[in-house]
Design brief:
Helix content is 30%, strand content 21%. By secondary structure, it is of the alpha+beta class. Its EC number is 2.3.1.41.
Length: 379
């Protein structure tokens, strides 16, 4: 078994940062009316700028595969070239197509000129960590000397007004108020675009910061809790999900079946408690002392959860002081599967890290409540 190190990181955020006041310029107005929920959601999530792979007419400027490829290209240098890449592992919530796989499309964008091993992790925020874990295990087992891992999202194109106008028009015909359900509109003001990538190698780099991956752990609570975030389906009264394939095609637009939705009541009830429970399990499993952790990078979807997450961690004996926490949510937005990559890249290249320090990564996923965490050592 080999030690595994993150030897280089790279981020790609498309176009210029978009302020809160500009969001509807890019995403458009549902039914031609400004959103009444937008200001409330933005006030709670504490995000001030984000990035969209859209122009001001709502037309795409990049695909998800292109965003990911651009982040990965930042990893190549004289020490690791395109020809050195043998394994590509990518995770995303928002692939550009159902098939082929996201990593297949990224491989095509990179113009490597030869075949490589690819792996695609799908799901929600944990798909980025799943992709990282695949690369970690491959290098650790000696299958490859290096791996390129990436997490990315292009959610903006899912959130443009035209995706919801059919539903609003249907509500009009039913003589109801033409307001799209909060569970659908909520995420329009929460999500953004971008990609981050890591190079994993079995040796640290000299004269630069490398991060040794000590472990990556995963926990799912789907055996206890119904789905909270979902797309391509509709939630039934008993909590089950009915697939898009089981609906008549004319209902796909009327009910915005393919829209990403979130049950905010379940979110509030479980997301922090189960996150603390899973992290406590990892600390017990590895016999870790919380005081040994120097930096805490916890992916959160909203600033609304920032205080609560610290409090829930403290309740299970993981009381990390504020000076150890690192967030960039307010500046780059919630990039889902790419968020932890983007945050760690910023910290890794900040000049603040010292050899021997420990970095804790925590990623929640509200799909059906799954969590991951990782511990890194600065080398």
């Amino acid at each position: 078994m080999y030690d595994v190190f993150i030897t280089k990181s790279s981020t790609y955020l498309p176009n210029e940062p978009v302020s809160n006041d500009e969001m509807e310029t890019y995403l458009g107005l549902i039914n031609g009316v400004p959103s009444k929920a937008r200001s409330l959601i933005l006030r709670n999530n504490k995000i001030t700028t984000r990035y969209y792979a859209l122009d001001k007419q709502g037309k795409p400027t990049h695909s998800n595969a292109q965003l990911t490829a651009k982040a990965i290209e930042g990893l190549f240098d004289e020490n690791f070239t395109k020809s050195d890449m043998k394994l590509l592992s990518c995770g995303t919530t928002s692939a550009d197509q159902i098939q082929p796989s996201h990593s297949s499309m990224v491989h095509g964008e990179l113009n490597i000129g030869r075949s490589i091993e690819i792996n695609t992790a799908t799901g929600l925020c944990n798909s980025g960590m799943n992709a990282l874990n695949y690369g970690f295990l491959a290098v650790r087992a000696g299958v490859h000397e290096a791996a390129v891992c990436a997490g990315s999202e292009r959610m903006s194109s899912w959130m443009t007004a035209d995706k919801f106008n059919h539903e609003a028009e249907n509500l009009k015909q039913l003589e109801e108020r033409p307001i799209v359900a909060f569970k659908r509109e909520f995420l329009r003001w929460m999500l953004s675009d971008g990609a981050g990538a890591f190079l994993l190698e079995n040796k640290p780099r000299e004269n630069s910061i490398s991060l040794k991956i000590d472990f990556i752990d995963f926990y799912s609570y789907a055996h206890e809790i119904e789905a909270c975030m979902y797309a391509g389906c509709e939630k039934q009264e008993d909590g089950s999900l009915q697939s898009w394939a089981d609906y008549p095609s004319d209902e796909w637009l009327k009910q915005s079946i393919f829209a990403l939705k979130q049950d905010t009541k379940i979110l509030d009830k479980y997301i922090l408690v189960k996150g603390a429970e899973s992290l406590r399990s990892s600390f017990d499993k590895h016999n870790l002392d919380p005081e040994s952790v120097d930096h805490v990078l916890a992916h959160i979807s909203s600033g609304y959860f920032k205080e609560g997450l610290k409090d829930e961690f403290a309740k299970v004996g993981l009381d990390f002081p504020w000076e150890k926490w690192f967030y960039n949510l307010s500046e780059v937005g919630n990039v889902g599967a790419g968020s932890i990559f983007i945050a760690l890249e910023e910290l890794m290249n900040s000049g603040k890290l010292k050899k021997g320090e420990k970095i804790l990564l925590c990623v929640p996923e509200s799909g059906r409540f799954a969590y991951s965490c990782a511990l890194l050592t600065v080398c």
